[in-house]
Design a protein that fits this description.
The protein is built from five helices and twelve strands. With 262 residues, the protein is an alpha+beta fold.
């Protein structure tokens, strides 16, 4: 079995690439972020023609998350308990969707960006991550053998080697001490990054900004992760970051991360 996570940066702009990726990669479950679509705009019929079921959560041209599965989708949850709201008046955003797919409780997550260290969105990001860690702790306390995976764009580079040049990020989000602590708290809730041990070292990125030829210059960031419970992590046999999907016309600025299970 294979599952993957991909910030597609608009499913309406990249529907053809999405369908081609599923056929080429042969993944069983795909967690998608930043769909930028309503439920009605999501290409459910086209995916059904390939044999995939869909659970999507989106309100407009912002955010949006989905799970695409050919091994079933059960117990769909849009948002997790305690997930914070944002704005005035406070509104719930389409940033989290979970379901049971092929026996795995898998979540597609689009963590808030943070925008700037002095921006209210940064505080919202930290609150959101704290709530996610609380939720995960509760899940794994209730069932330590749960096959749980949190997948998505976490908008955090937890280690210095996860950015091409730390000096370029001085005073910015994604690398701050508070964000890295929040990511560490997620791991402490009973999860592990199952991709890093298989793809170690600097220069292993999942995101490259469209500006300044970042991809061509290999100036990227590692901010997309698959975090798994201990019971699921034991089944991991391989991992790939599909840089092919960052190439060519109309590519997302993120590459899919694929995990293979025994």
């Amino acid at each position: 079995m294979k599952f993957a996570t991909w910030n597609i940066n608009s499913v309406r702009a990249r529907q053809d690439r999405l369908l081609a990726f599923l056929e080429r990669s042969d993944v069983d479950v795909l967690a998608v972020q930043e769909t930028k679509a309503t439920d009605e705009q999501f290409p459910t019929a086209a995916l059904a023609a390939l044999g995939y079921d869909v659970a999507h959560h989106g309100f407009s041209q912002w955010n949006g998350v989905a799970l695409i599965s050919r091994v079933g989708i059960e117990n769909v949850r849009r948002g997790f308990p305690g997930m914070p709201t944002f704005g005035e008046p406070p509104e719930s955003e389409a940033r989290a969707i979970g379901a049971t797919c092929g026996g795995i409780d898998l979540w597609s997550l689009y963590v808030p960006n943070g925008r700037g260290l002095d921006d209210p969105h940064y505080d919202y990001k930290l609150e959101w991550l704290a709530a996610l860690a609380w939720f995960t702790t509760g899940e794994l306390t209730a069932d330590p053998q749960q096959q749980l995976a949190l997948c998505g764009d976490f908008n955090i580079a937890p280690q210095d080697e996860d950015v091409w040049d730390m000096a370029a990020f001085d005073g910015s989000t994604h690398v701050s001490a508070a964000e890295r602590t929040a990511f560490g708290n997620l791991l402490d809730s009973g999860l592990s990054d199952v991709v890093r041990p298989l793809l170690p070292g600097p220069g292993v990125y999942t995101y490259w900004d469209y500006q300044r030829l970042r991809f061509a210059r290999r100036e990227g960031m590692r901010i997309d992760f698959a975090l798994a419970s201990a019971a699921l992590a034991r089944r991991v046999t391989g991992a790939v970051i599909d840089r092919q999907e960052r190439k060519g016309k109309g590519a997302s600025d993120h590459a899919p991360v694929i995990v293979e299970l025994a």
